[in-house]
Every structure is written in structure tokens, then in C-alpha cells.
Amino acid sequence: MKTIVSDPFATKGIEYLVVLGYLAAVPLFWRYLNGNPLLAPSRVLAAQRKVLSGWFRLPETASYHPGHSWASPAGGGRFRVGLDDFAQKLLGRAAEIALPDLGARLAKGAPAWALNVDGHRFELPAPVTGRVVARNEAALRDPGVVNGDPYGAGWLLEIEAPRWNSGAGSLLRGGRAKEWLARAENALRLRMNPEVGAVLQDGGVPVPGIARALDEEGWDELARDLLTRA
Amino acid sequence: MNGARAITQDRPANPPGKREGGAAGLWRFLLSELKPKGSLFTPFNLVSVPIMIAAAVILYIRFTHGLSAVTNLSQEVPWGLWKGLNVVTGVAFAGGAYVVTFLVYVLGQKRYHSIVRITVLNGFLAYVFYAGALLLDLGRPLKVINPIIGNSFGVSSVLFLVAWHFMLYMMAAFLEFSPAVAEWLGLRRVRRTLAALTLGAVIFGVTLSMLHQSGLGALFLMAKGKIHPLWYSEFIPIHFFVSSVFAGLSLVIFEGTLSRRVFRARMSEEHHAHHDDIVLGLSKICAATMFAYLFLKVLDLVHGQKTGLLGTPMGQWYLVEIVGFVLVPMALFTEAVRWRSLRLAKTAAVVTMLGIVLNRLNVSIVGFRWTEQVRYVPTPYEVVVTLGVIFAEIWVLRWVINRMPVLSESPAWVREEAAQPAIAESVAA
Amino acid sequence: MNRRGFLKTLGLAGATVACPRTSGAAEPESGVEPYGILVDTTLCAGCNSCTYACAEANGLPEPEDPDAVTKPTTEQWTAIKTWKTSKGDVSVKRQCMHCVSPACHSACLTSALDKTAEGPVVWREDKCMGCRFCMVSCPFDGPKFEYSSTKPRIRKCVMCAGRLKKGEEPACVENCPEGALTFGRRGDLLRTAHKRIADQPDKYVDHIYGEREVGGTSWLYLAGVPFEELGFPTDVGETPYPELTASFLYSVPMVLTLAPALMLGMARATHRDEDETAGEAAKDGAANGGEEERS
Q: How many Å apart are CA A194 and CA A47, to the nearest integer?
């Protein structure tokens, strides 16, 4: 009786080599898989990106939640929070802003305020966890304030948040915030047609908001999509 | 979007739980829900109904005249298309349910939440119909209770294990889906209890799935020598398990595109909003899993010293499967992720699914007894029954989607009970 | 406890109705050597006496033209095929090999196929559900299935288990006019076979088919030509077939133990972040239901 396999480990060496090859290939593959060619430096893309880059303001004084709201410390364990420039330019002027009552508890990432734009309701998340201690009555009366100065006079709420549990530590700041905004700009750029690009380059804000300028029909869906893309 | 609202309200406004207690109310509600919604003469119905009727007739002959009356099964090839396609392949496609519930409930990937119900429902029905198709193939279907009631436990059998896992998994999957049934029937308290059991059901279900997906491969371990060495491997359980991940997810992607077209009106906003990200996220998982799977296949070739066989005709067929239906769709998925292209992702999903069918049939039919002079080729009857089973599953799936909150949002009372911390309710401190 | 005993303990949880074993699983393994049959293909004339005797003893229809049947069927459990070999025509009787560790028995999820202590592998009608996994698993294609029946049975040589119990030889052995078949304890038969090879090394190839193949079979074969020439599967190896699934089956309890624990840990780890940030916002009641919510 002849036996077919004499050495059960005859191929072990090659198997280990294959595994080593695999381990070497994994990081390369992973980088390739996660590398978005749209973000890669290329001349055309760089030129295109100029259209938008720097167009949305991103003050260093605030920290940002990927759901397009900002928070900046206001002293005394309080945060002043609001809507970021991207969101206000995307949506345009709101007819009405709904803010939670004083004393309401907000959870980071959960819907905190709602903008009513042309009959469509957009809920945006709170950047930190805490209790509402002040509301910007001016913005309630005239939502246009938010469009005029989203990081200043256009603030929305003051939230009292215990420092250790506010979730503010993990908000986006500095380089990470810039990266995040670049992604958001990029997503927006992909939906843009040349005419709108030209309008933006001129520095003009389409009054009804960028989203409606892009797509009159399904602008609300488009806006929702762009706002929730983190 | 307004359309979505309108149709959602089209659902019976008063499910029995709310309206009138008692069995009579429930019964009347169920009867009313049996009525078809929408036109009966759609192209899908026109194709599927005749096939299902034909399948029923064939099955009648099969049960009155024996398997040989309608199948080409032989003493050499005892398992044919019904086992190879319905059971072995169908269950692989049901793998999406355990992967998605694992992502959402165990890994906390909330963005996949909106597809949990549809995939779990799909998985559950796949098990009911495809594992149920096993009964059609059994010589003595009534004896199927034997390994379950305990008068004859063949605990050394892989099939014993697979059968038990099928059964337990069906229960777990039903439990995972049951909150939707409770919402449909308007049973509030039952729903809350069921929802609380979800994490447990998910963990149990994922464990069982790992075991029976690989168990389906282990069924072929003792067919050593009968299956072409390129497809036979001592690691076949692992290959089956790993490939069930991308098989299931590809079906989720594919099915998602279909239902976006067919059930557009019933879809929740959440579903619409996240669709692109979900498809691309799943594509990334597929690409990464297929990358690992390819290396597993290479390791198997090396370990079994089978590289020499690649030059033979069967070897070329093997390469068609591996290159054309694993490597190519993996590349497609990768590019889909990089370029955020839904169309590429869908194409990749379809190619992957074909590859899974090919792989499972290669193991169970094409590579099985490959040296035999007279090869097994299924009869048209077997094909019709196989299609009939698939169509029946789609019919039930459609019936459920049109009635229960699967793609659509849960009824208002569920959302009211849920935590709505900010605007909806302002809790005074 | 040897391997067979182990399998038996595993597999025979149920009662044994169709085939009550006199010795039974309770009997200690010591000393009881199972029976076997030695086939000396150099002596077989291909007369098919065994085929007729088999049909009579097992209540099968009388073979009409056994020469035309070269493989066992549902109605003819033993068949003789004549092979053209380097040493002329050789007739070989084939039937179920009655493995020492049968693949069919370990494959059967209802324990319908039973390895008895005496050696025969028998089929029990009240257990079988007709899944045919035994046929997929058997390396020798022993079990045959009645495809044309609405109440199909698995049919195969049972080594005349009933006659063995009465102290009789299997019908084929008793009726072989050439003395090509020898019945006895498997160990004795192996000694006999080795002696024949040693006595006549020119007549026999030095290989007893079934001595080590798939862990050993109850039917043993002697031949004058290599077994490849006689259509025997020579690539089946020496590992008992049930061992091919052993590592998979052993890993099952392991996975059932470890996977839920790991997943609970993962679920806890990934949801902790949420617990902290959501804080009191999610009330206890909602936390339970919240798992399912799409808020």
C-alpha cells in the first residue's frame, strides 16, 4: 500500500510565504480601497476644488460636529452652539427656526433644532450633550440672522454641559475639521453643474440656498444627503 | 416623499390591537390583509404564477410516483439541483441577515439600521423556503421529525448539526423580525418585550449562522474522492463560511436596488437618505472579504498541491470561477468604493452572486463525480420546481413588505415610545 | 474504548427496533472480534451462485440476468464484474464493504445506518428520512436508494445479519462452489490472507484490500493483479472516513461557547460610547425598546 502524502507539512513553507505575501498585501489593498481618487491631488481636481475651497468659513474658535453644527466654550461650563456656514449656505434662508425650550436636555448627535425652509423641515444635531440655558431670541424672530453671521450673532443656543460628559472633546477641530469640510465640499462639488460653480466663484450666494440652485425638484433630498454625510 | 406618506397611511388605520380586542377582530384583520394590493397582472406575476403552478403539478407527481419520475438523480449522484441550488446556494444568499445584524447590533454600525428588517426578513424566508425545499428532496419527508424529537439522534452527523442549526436559526431570525409583526398587528406590549430580546437573538443567530454556513461545506467533507480535488478541500467549511459573507451582502445590495424601484412608495426617509452610503459600505466589506477569500483559495491550492491541475479543462473552469467571478467582482467592488459609484457596486453584486451560484454548483454538481461517463444534468422538471420555490419566496416576501413596517417607517406609536430627547419632548430639568 | 465503541455510544442513543443486537452495545469490547468475509478473486469463477443465494436469503426478486448487472442495485445487492487485466479475466464480486468505521453511519442524522457489533452495517427503516447523505459520503457507493418508490428504502448488502444471529454463515459464502469466499472473525481472515500471500507470493499481489483502506472494512479482498486494475478505489486513504468531519464537529461546541461571549463583549464595547454621550437622555424604558428604534 503506497501512501500518497509522505510529509504532512510538505507545503508549510510555501504556505507561510503566501501568508506573508497576504499580510504585506493587506495594507496596500486597504489603502487603495479607502483612497478616494476624487481627493487625490491632481491638477484638474485641484483647479476644480479652487471653486469651492475656502468658500465655507470654518473659524478656529469653534469645534464642529459632523452633522454641521458648531460649539464654542462660553465660560462657566457653557457652550454656545449654532449652525455652521456650510449648512446655512446649503439650505438658504429659513422661514422659521424651531428651538427646544429652556431647560430641555440635548444629547450630542440627536436632533436639537429644526429649520423650516420652504415647507421642508430639516433637523440638525446638537454638537454637545447638556441642558439648554439660553436661546437666541433674535434668531427666532428673524432667521436671516443665521445666514448673516452663523458663528456670531446667528448663534442658536447656550448649553450648560458638564465638561466631563459633554462629548465636546471628540468634536472636530483644526486639521481634522478642515479634512471633514473638504469631504463635505467634495460631495457638494460632485453634484454641481458648471453654472452654479461660476455663481459661487463670483462670491454670490444664491438666495434660496445652494441646494435649490443645484436641483429645483429634489433639492430637499439632496440637502439632507449632503448634511448627513459625515 | 409625499407619495411615501400617502401610501404609508394606506395601511389599515386601525390594527386589531388598538381597535377591538379579541380573536374575532384579529381574524377579520388578517382576512382583510390577505386581499392583494395593486394590480394582479404585472409581468412578474404573469411569469411566476404559471411556473409555480407547474411546480405544484410536478411536485404532485414527485410525491405520488417517487423522485425518479421527475428527477435525474441516480445511485452515483444522489444530490441534484434541489439540494445544490435551493438548499446549498439559497442558504449562502441568506447570509446577509447575520452579517447585517452583526454590524448593527454587535458592532454598533447604526447606519445600516434601515436595512436590518428587510435583510432579516429575507434571511428568514430564505431559510423557510430553501431549507424547506429539503423536504421536497427527502425520500420520506414525514420522518424529518426523527432527528428533532429525539428518537434517533445521529449526533455524529454534520447534517444533524446543520438541520438543528437551520431550525434554531429560523427561530432566532423570526425573533429578530417579530417586532415588525407586532407593529403590524398593533400589539404594543408584545412589541416592547420582543424588541428587548433582539440583541440576544442576534448573537445567537450569528453564532448559529457561522456554524451552519460552514456546516453546509462540511457536508461534502466525506465526499472526498468524489469531488474534483480543486473544489474538494479540508477547508471547505471555512471557504463556505467566508463566501457566505459576500454572497449575502451582494444579495442585500442587489435586492436593495430592486426594492427601491418596486417598493419606492413604502420606503422610509431614513432608508432613502442612507441608501448610497449603505451600498458603498457593504461594497467595502465585500471587497475586503473577497480579498481574504482569494488568499484562502491560494493557500488551499498550495496546501493540497493542486497547482498542477490548473492546466486541465477542469482547472480552467476553476480559474473561470476564481478569476471571473471572485477576482473581477472584487476589483469592481473596490473601484465602486473608491469612485463612490453605485452602478459599479450593483454590477459587482450581480457578478458576485453568479459566482456564488457557480461555486456551490461546482462543488455539489459539476465537480461531483466529474469522471463519470454519464453526467448528472437536471431535468426541466427539476429546474421548474427550483424556480417555483424561488418565486414562492418572493411572493411571500412581497406580501410581507406590503403590509408590515419592513422598508417603511414603524407606526407612529412606536416612534412615540422611543427616546426623542430634543425637540419632540422637552423634559424640564 | 476504541473508535468504534466511541461512535456507537455517540450514535446509538435511540432504541434499536429493526435490528435488535444480541450482543449489543452493552457488551464489553474485549475479545469480541467482528465478523468479516474474505474474497479471493483468484478463485472466483464468476458463476453468480452468490447472487442467486443472496436474492433468496434476503427476499429479493430472482435475478434475471445477473451477468448483465455489474454494479449492485437496489434489487441485487451483490454483483460480479469481470475485468480485463494483465493476468487475463478476473471476476470480482462487489457489495457494501461494511467498513469498520462506516462513513454512512456517521453521516446519518437519524442513526438509520447502524454498525452492529458483529460487523454488519444495517439499515433501519423506522429511522431513515431518505436524505441520501449516506450515499454522498460512502467511498464505495454502498447504499442504493429506491428512487421510483414513494416510500423509498436504502438497499444494500447487510452481510446476512439475521443469519449471523442464528449462527449461520452469510448466504453467499455458504453457496460459493469455488471456495472463493471465506467467512470468519476479521482478525482470523487477515491471518489467513497473509498466509496465502506468503505461501504463494507469485500468485498474489502483496496487498489485502480492506485491511487498512478507510480504516479497515469487513470485506477483505485478495487479488493476483493490482487493485487499480479491478476497479477498486485506491485513493481513499487509510483514515476512517468519519475522521474527515471530526475536527469540524469538535469545533462546533467551541464556537458555540466562545462566539457569543466575544460578541457580547464587542456589543458592550461599541455601545459604551453611546451610553456615555447619550447619558440620561435615553431613559431606561427607552433604552430597552431603543434597540429597535428608528428615531
A: 13
Contacts (Cβ under 8 Å, ≥6 apart) of B47: none
Residue C214 distance to chain A (closest CA, Å):
12
Query: Which ranges in chain C belong to alpha helices (H)?
Result: 3-11, 49-57, 103-107, 133-137, 161-165, 171-174, 186-199, 243-278, 284-290
Instruction: Provide the H-helix boundaries in A51-209.
Output: 85-91, 137-141, 144-148, 174-190, 194-201
Residues in chain A with CB shorter than 8 Å from the CB of C237 are 4
Weakest mean pLDDT among A24-38, B373-387, C78-92 = A24-38
Q: What is the dihedral of CA C145, C150, C153, C155, to 10 degrees?
A: -50
Is 0.80 surpassed by the pTM of this model? no
C-alpha cell at position A116 = 423650516
CA separation for the pair C201, C223 (Å, rounded): 11
Mention every residue, 6+ apart, whose C-beta is less than 8 A from residue B274.
A228, B111, B114
pLDDT of residue A34: 83
Which residues of chain B have a CB within 8 Å of the CB of C282? Answer: 419, 421
The full DSSP string for B220-271 is TGGGTTTB-TTT--TTHHHHHHHHHHHHHHHHHHHHHHHHHHHSGGG--HHH
Chain B: residue whose CA lies nearest to A12: B303
ipTM of the complex: 0.84
CB-based contact B399:B88 (threshold 8 Å): no
The set of chains that have 3 or more CB pairs under 8 A with C is A, B
Phi, psi angle pair for C15, to nearest 5°: -75, 160
The answer to whether A112 contacts B427, with C-beta atoms less than 8 Å apart, is no
| pLDDT tens sequence across A148-201 | 888 888 899 999 887 667 777 778 887 778 878 887 877 777 776 655 555 555
* pLDDT tens track for B101-138: 999 999 988 888 888 988 999 999 998 998 888 889 99
CB contact under 8 A, A29 and B291: yes
Sheet containing strand C35-40, strands side by side: C181-185, C35-40, C219-222
Q: A–C: how many Cβ contacts below 8 A?
A: 28
A118: left (phi over 0), alpha (psi -120 to 50) or beta: left
Alpha carbon distances (Å) from B212 to B80, B83, B161, C25, C104: 20, 15, 8, 31, 20
* Interface residue of C197, C277, C280, C295 to substitute, partner A, most A CBs within 10 Å: C277
| A110 contacts on C by Cβ (under 8 Å) | 278, 281
Closest CA to B267 of B255, B259, B277: B259
The alpha carbon dihedral of A127, A132, A137, A143 has a sign of positive
Write out chain C residues lying below 8 Å of B191, CB-based: 289
- Element at B342 (helix H, strand E): helix B342-361
